[in-house]
Automatic annotation (TrEMBL):
It holds the Pfam family Acetyltransf_1. CDD domains: NAT_SF. It comes from Diplocloster agilis. Residues 1-160 form the N-acetyltransferase domain. This is GNAT family N-acetyltransferase.
Amino acid sequence: MDLRVFQENDQPLANTFFTQCLPESGRVFEPAGRHASLTRLAETFSEGRCWCLFERGELVGTVAVRPLTLTDKKTGSACSRSCELKILYLRQTFHGKGYGSLLLTTALSYAQDCGYHSMYLDTIRSGSGAEVLYRKYGFREIPRYNNNPHADLFMVKDLAVSS
C-alpha cells in the first residue's frame, strides 16, 4: 500500500478510479457535469491537499481537504478556520482493511497541522460504512451547511477534540 499526495500525472488513473468507484456507492460519475471538478484534482484542491491510495499500482482510494469559509449566523462575519473533507472514496473490495481509517486520519492530521478548528463534510446516507467511520472519529450530524443538492447527511468534527 502506498499513500501519497496527488500528482498531476495521477489524473488519468483518478478518472478511471471515479468511473469505477462512484457506482459502487450508488453514484454515477458525471465528468462533464457535477463531477467536472474531479477531472482536474490539482486545480480543485490547489488551496488544500488531495491524497491517493495505491495497492500494487492500482488507485484504490482518495481523500482531500480544502478550506471552507462559513458565515457565523450570529455575527454575520466569515469564519475561515474551517475546512471540508472531500472525496473520501475507497473501492469496495478494499473495505474492511483499515484503508478508510488511514485516509480519514491522514486528512484529519493535515487539517490539525494547518490550524483548522473544525472539519465539515457532506455525503449521502447509504448502506456503506462511511457514516459509521465518521462517527467513530468524532464527527457529529449537523443541519445542512451548504447547498449541495445531492447530499443528505452533513457532519462536523471539532479538531481541538482528539479522537
